[in-house]
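Exercise 7b. Backbone tokens:
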């Protein structure tokens, strides 16, 4: 049944009431151009907080803009930070942790690379660690690890499943001493935070002078992003900032870092999970994934 125009307008108005306008986090400018206009008619204001979780995959409805001065792309206006943090803190996320074993396989090759810069294991902080898969892989190699994660359920899951130290909250809630870590990692985190520049400055403060920061973000300048346009799978409501290599490099350099290595990052995930995450873009994919998975199991002799 089609929705009455009045109902759609009321829903849009409720959603707008949850938004805040922000300047560019990199340079402070308010001189912007629109990359993608808002689509507030698709807003769900009654459960907006539920979108902000590790497996959040709601298609972007907010306005995406680009700073004319420095090129950084971000949402403006965007959901208020109180709404965002409350959403991340609450709820369970069984979908995300279902891929824990695959994420361990994803992270494993990176530790030798990191140790090539540090000379061996040391102290490592993983910001926004989710279920702690990266911490677990690092701990097995002899690292002294600590993680922070806004979602309380994921914190407990990681502590129980991996036996690693994960503390609820953000990096600012930890109040860590200056120069106390050799490595700080942010895997798919910086695009989610309300103030990425402040987060990077805090990382710089707690890193030793020869410390290493590891940052992974979706690349909005990638060929697939350019081809897909508005249907790029990383255009999500949970992503408040969109980086290119150039804009990320500028932000890192402005907060005291020098880029020493750049590489593509590919995650290992089960095909059914990937297709499920893409359902909003191609609704038929989950059913196709189910048939593919059953065919693979049958070929492996596991039955239906």
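Sequence design result:
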């Amino acid at each position: 049944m089609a929705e009455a125009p009045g109902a759609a307008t009321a829903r849009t108005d409720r959603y707008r009431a949850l938004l805040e306008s922000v300047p560019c986090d990199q340079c402070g400018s308010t001189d912007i151009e629109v990359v993608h206009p808002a689509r507030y008619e698709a807003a769900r204001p009654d459960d907006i907080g539920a979108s902000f979780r590790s497996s959040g995959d709601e298609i972007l409805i907010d306005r995406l803009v680009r700073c004319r001065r420095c090129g950084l792309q971000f949402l403006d206006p965007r959901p208020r930070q109180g709404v965002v943090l409350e959403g991340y803190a609450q709820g369970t996320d069984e979908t995300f942790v279902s891929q824990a074993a695959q994420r361990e396989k994803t992270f494993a090759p990176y530790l030798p690379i990191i140790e090539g810069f540090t000379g061996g294991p040391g102290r490592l902080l993983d910001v926004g660690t989710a279920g702690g898969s990266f911490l677990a892989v690092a701990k097995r190699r002899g690292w002294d690890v600590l993680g922070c994660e806004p979602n309380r359920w994921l914190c407990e899951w990681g502590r129980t499943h991996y036996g690693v130290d994960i503390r609820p909250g953000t990096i600012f809630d930890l109040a860590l001493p200056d120069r106390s870590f050799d490595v700080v990692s942010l895997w798919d985190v910086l695009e989610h935070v309300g103030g990425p520049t402040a987060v990077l400055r805090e990382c710089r403060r707690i890193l030793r002078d020869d410390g290493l920061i590891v940052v992974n973000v979706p690349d909005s300048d990638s060929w697939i992003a350019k081809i897909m346009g508005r249907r790029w799978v990383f255009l999500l409501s949970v992503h408040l900032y969109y980086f290119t290599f150039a804009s990320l490099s500028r932000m890192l350099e402005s907060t005291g870092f020098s880029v020493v290595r750049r590489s593509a990052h590919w995650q290992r995930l089960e095909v059914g999970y990937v297709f499920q995450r893409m359902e909003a873009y191609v609704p038929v994919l989950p059913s196709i994934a189910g048939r593919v998975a059953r065919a693979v199991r049958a070929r492996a002799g596991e039955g239906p």
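Instructor comment: Residues 285-299 form the longest helix (15 residues). The mean pLDDT is 84.
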